[in-house]
């Protein structure tokens, strides 16, 4: 598998992504919570679909997997889960998708039955209308002006994601049919869930957008009534129900539903393709006319009510993941600023991990403290300050005789030495008033003789100490030597 940070690490690294705990599993792949880590502290939560390792070397499965990513990336609509990236590294094949904080419609219906909290009809219609608009976007998608003719072929409650924000999205185009697919399903092969297939799909006849309309009609019938429509333990019995059994009106199971709504649902479930709605959008518009769709707030309230525990647990995982990403960014930034080698931060004993189980824990280190979050900034400020001090020291040696009493450069790094007390009769002359002495003429090598006295006279009659005739005191001011007056 991918690179693992340590034997106890709750994630593995593939490329620039961290792959965390599993969210869902299917026949070909598993979906994991993930995180993209970028430079300058950038991080983004994502969902990562990982092809099972036993299929990674099978060209047929790899082709299907990559086709799904290409199809989803060609559909741009708020009701379709977006594909962001494809990663093929370290023997793994990943499709990186938009992360949606919510639950599948299948999970929500199961939780509502457990809590005896049936979804209001207006909420169900809003969820289905959103899904139908996403399907319509897929059916009408094009590339460079050429229609892609995408048919999802696997519309089911498991592939409809209802977000905690009240927005519903269609996902998983793994077995979708489209003009750009490099992999084509063999003749006579049926893919999908039989209980949600259309008659033409089961019979391996040509399919189009109306195939997804039929499947969405099955989903709507089951969500309104709380029962299964074409389900049977044996797949052959399920096919018989799909092809031959009479389809009851939803109101025969749920009397509070209107006859107008019955008519719309049964039209979507017509076994004859020509009798169905021509498009998913037409189906959604008919539902809005006869029943009206609930508001997004109503969807948010229902999702929050029936999936409260699941969403709270997921939120804890997300918060821990974000804290882990911040900790990683700080640890990566410190070596860059200070020039030290990166080291893994130790986990303090007694770290609180009650909310995270062994299988789903994603926090390798405790959340960063406010001081640690500011560490890169503090180190950077210290580095700039040191550089500024060095610059001042270098500049101070170039212009020692500035007018006025300048502060000595050495005082920036150490306290100055006490200035000597001037003699009472010593005059103070500004540096600008001193004449510039001409250089002494070159008369060959000079033989230095030891003076007989401390104030031995030179050839000019002046004491040797008068060359130069001034000195610079601790304040940087030139002072004339008394013996040179």
Note the run of SSEs as H and E. EEEEEHEEEHHEEEEHHHHHHHHHEE
CATH fold category name of the largest domain: Transferase(Phosphotransferase), domain 1
* Spatial gap, N to C terminus: 90 Å
SS-derived structural category: alpha+beta
The proportion of residues forming helix, as a percent range, comes to: 25-40%
Helix count from the secondary structure assignment: 12
Average pLDDT metric:
75
Low-confidence stretches: 1-7, 181-188, 335-369, 396-417, 423-449, 451-456
Count of distinct strands: 14
* Rg result: 40 Å
Approximate shape: elongated
Corresponding CATH architecture of the largest domain: Orthogonal Bundle
- Strand arrangement within the widest β-sheet reads 1-2-3-4-5-7-6
Largest sheet: 7 strands, antiparallel
Q: Please identify the top-level CATH class of the largest domain.
A: Mainly Alpha
- The CATH superfamily of the largest domain appears as Transferase(Phosphotransferase) domain 1
Any idea how many domains? 3
Strand content bin:
5-15%
């Amino acid at each position: 598998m991918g690179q693992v940070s340590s034997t106890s690490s709750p994630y593995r690294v593939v490329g620039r992504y961290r792959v965390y705990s599993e969210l869902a599993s299917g026949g070909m792949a598993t979906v994991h919570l993930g995180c993209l880590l970028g430079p300058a502290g950038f991080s983004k939560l994502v969902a990562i679909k990982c092809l099972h390792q036993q299929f990674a070397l099978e060209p047929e499965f790899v082709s299907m997997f990559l086709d799904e990513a290409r199809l989803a990336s060609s559909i741009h609509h708020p009701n379709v889960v977006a594909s962001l990236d494809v990663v093929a590294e370290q023997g793994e094949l990943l499709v990186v998708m938009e992360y949606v904080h919510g639950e599948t419609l299948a999970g929500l219906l199961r939780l509502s039955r457990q809590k005896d909290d049936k979804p209001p009809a207006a909420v169900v219609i809003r969820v289905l209308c959103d899904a139908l608009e996403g399907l319509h976007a897929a059916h009408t998608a094009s590339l460079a002006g050429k229609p892609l003719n995408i048919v999802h072929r696997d519309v089911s409650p498991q592939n409809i994601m209802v977000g905690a924000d009240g927005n519903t999205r269609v996902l998983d185009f793994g077995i979708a049919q489209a003009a750009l697919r490099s992999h084509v399903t063999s003749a006579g092969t049926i893919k999908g869930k039989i209980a949600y297939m259309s008659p033409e799909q089961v019979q391996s006849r040509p399919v189009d957008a109306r195939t997804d309309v039929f499947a969405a009609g099955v989903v709507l019938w089951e969500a309104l009534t709380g029962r299964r429509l074409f389900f049977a333990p044996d797949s052959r019995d399920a096919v018989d129900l799909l092809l031959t059994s009479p389809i009851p009106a939803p109101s025969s199971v749920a009397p509070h539903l209107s006859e107008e709504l019955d008519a719309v649902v049964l039209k979507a479930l017509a076994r004859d393709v020509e009798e169905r709605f021509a498009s998913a959008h037409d189906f959604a518009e008919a539902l809005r006319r006869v029943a009206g769709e609930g508001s997004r707030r109503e969807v948010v309230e229902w999702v929050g009510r029936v999936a409260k525990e699941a969403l709270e647990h997921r939120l804890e995982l997300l918060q821990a993941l974000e804290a882990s990403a911040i900790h990683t960014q700080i640890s990566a930034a410190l070596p860059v600023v200070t020039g030290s080698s990166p080291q893994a931060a130790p986990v303090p004993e007694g770290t609180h991990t009650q909310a995270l189980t062994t299988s789903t824990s994603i926090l390798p280190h405790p959340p960063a403290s406010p001081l640690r979050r500011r560490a890169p900034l503090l180190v950077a400020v210290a580095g700039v300050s040191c550089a500024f001090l060095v610059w001042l020291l270098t500049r101070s040696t170039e212009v020692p005789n500035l007018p006025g009493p300048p502060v000595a450069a050495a005082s920036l790094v150490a306290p100055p030495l006490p200035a000597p007390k001037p003699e009472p009769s010593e005059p103070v002359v500004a540096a600008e008033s001193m004449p510039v002495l001409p250089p002494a003429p070159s008369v060959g090598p000079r033989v230095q003789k030891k003076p007989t006295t401390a104030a031995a006279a030179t050839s000019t009659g002046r004491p040797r100490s008068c060359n130069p005739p001034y000195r610079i005191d601790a304040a940087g001011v030139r002072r004339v030597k008394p013996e040179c007056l």
